[in-house]
Amino acid sequence: MDCVKTPQEILIDSAKSYYAYLSEHDLGLEELKIVGATLEQERLILTLGVKVLSQDGLVLQVGERLFELSACADMQYNQEDSILEISPNYELLESLQQLQSQKPKKSSAHKLALENLKLFSDLKFLVRNVEEFATKHPLSLPSRKPIAPPQIPSYLNEYQKNALIMLFSQSLSYVWGAPGSGKTQVVLFEAVYHYAKQGLKTCVLAPTNSALEQIFTTLIAHFKQMDFELSNLLRLGMPTQKFLSLYPECCDPNLLVQRGQTSLFAQPTSLKNRLKNAHIIGLTLDGFIKKRENLEVEFAHYFLDECAFVPLAKACALCADNVPLTLFGDHKQLMPICEMPPNALKIHKEVSVWNLSALFLEEFFHSPQVMLEKQPTDTPTLSHIAELRFTHRYGDNLAQILDRAIYHIGLRGRDERMEIYCIDSGAKGEAQSNVSQNEALAIHKLYKYLHQKSLTQSLGIITPFVNQKKLLQRTIAHSDISTIHGSQGREWENVIFSPVGLHYYLTDSRQTNALFGLNVAISRLKKRLFIVCDLGFWQQQEGQFLHALLSQSTRINL
After folding, report:
1. 167 close to 377: Cβ distance less than 8 angstroms
2. Digit-coded pLDDT (tens) for 409-420
3. I need a labelling partner for 196 at 20 to 30 A (CA). Which of 204, 265, 373, 484 fits?
């Protein structure tokens, strides 16, 4: 007879099984191409051939040695130029200096030999961190109630008011809404502001660096309009160069010293002092799992954004301190990425906690064995959910399409119509299903047209397929070209979407994962959507989400 395991035991076993599987199948490890490396004034500067989506799990190989960078270095990232600056601790610096001493005499004084230097994004480190955290800390659902709620501001709509009241009355709650419904700009802002006014600290978390930066940028924009010191906000981890230059007072002071950005009239302060004085502290969830023990901060409330994209296994770390927890997100969008395929998950059922989202947290602690039979597309059950049913992001025409196809909650939008355009690229000629040269050429023409209209400053080009992304990158000199997963947590005024073809897992909306993925692609836009596709083909696909979008679009002839 099988013994009944506790959630904590399942979590530890899952991390061990998942780590072993990743190791055995050479998964979870991606090499990030280094095209240039210099060591100047005890700072390593790497020019990369790819974009860095997250600092969590970055591993630097120096010769034969591996260094987990989040544990032994401070980092700062220039997203535009793909430059990663690393300020190493003594051990890593010593290895780099030894590598520098081995270079040929004729080479540059600062350059390092690239053949002895490699950078990896290693998922296995993040899995191991979860195991270590779960081994050290008892885990249980929070039972402590939040503080008394604020007086509800009159500008909130009915749904936002209900969400704020729920948030301050429940130990565990979920605020669900489509983009533009006020999850961050209204509900989260009012919550952290209320805590800050009471002199209490809150922790704002997100699954990726880009998502965290987007949240902080939104909060800062609101706080700048008020009598509120921005130094009350502290964003830990690796900021982009743009964020660091715009909001240095919100960043890790160690980075400011390294970049020479401290004021001549202000005394430099330590990270310990910043943690003591800041009221709103932001981290990625992986950063929280790694650093929580050393922060020495007592939080009054945890807020986890983009929670539907967060693996349940990682979200369990927020159940260690009996701190009220509120989840923000949209379970009709992307789900967690698990490298273990369905046939292996049937054998290693405990690894399901990496396949399911944070929204299954309550069910997991109440019925852990039953939870292991769940599918990611199952609707999560929580005792306290607030639905935000109005979005300022979309015109009502697009909001109604999204509601009929995806949300089913009566979602409504602004009175004016959303600008949806289509460009017919002509029939796809390639036999290969995940690339379209015609779409790439049409997007190139569209890009030149939009550039003339000054509409490319805030433009994202999105496709479901990696090969199509690579083709677009070779065709168009634009920095923001990504897959649907790569666009998660980002937003643009304008979005160009290249669907390529009807693919069961990625664009066939009869399949739930594909439908939710398409929702993510569409929800990245703020103003205009351009769909570049084989129009004749998609017009024949009745019942498909893209067919419904195209039926509301205006055709552009290039």
Report:
1. no
2. 999 999 988 899
3. 265
Q: What is the pLDDT of residues 173-193, one digit of tens each?
A: 999 999 999 999 999 999 999
β pairing state of 83-88 and 43-48: antiparallel
Q: Are the C-beta atoms of residues 413 and 200 closer than 8 Å to each other?
A: no
Global pTM? Answer: 0.89
Reference 63, options 97, 32, 89, 88; nearest CA is: 97
* 3-state class (DSSP) for residue 449: helix
Rounded distance, CA 443 to CA 533, Å?
9
Q: Which two tokens stand for residue 420?
A: 């949806």
How many angstroms separate the CA atoms of 296 and 352, rounded? Answer: 32
| Beta bridge pairs of residue 36 | 47
C-alpha span between 472 and 118 (Å, rounded) = 27
Coil vs helix vs strand at 180: coil
The whole-angstrom separation of Cα 546 and Cα 532 is: 11
Q: How many CB atoms lie within 10 A of CB 220?
A: 19
Which DSSP string corresponds to 19-87?
HHHHHHTT-SEEEEPEEEEEEETTEEEEEESS----STTEEEEETTEEEEHHHHEEEEEETTTTEEEEE
544: confidence class by pLDDT, cuts 50, 70, 90 = very high
- Residue 426, beta-bridge partner list: none
Instruction: Give the DSSP letter string of 209-245.
Output: HHHHHHHHHHHHHHHTTSS--GGGEEE-S--BHHHHH
Q: How many residues does the chain have?
A: 558
Q: Is 254 helix (H, G, I), strand (E, B) or coil?
A: helix
pLDDT band of 519, cuts 50, 70, 90: very high
Q: What is the pLDDT of residue 267?
A: 44
Rounded to 5 degrees, φ, ψ at 229 are -65, 125
Q: How far apart are CA 211 and CA 148, in angstroms?
A: 29
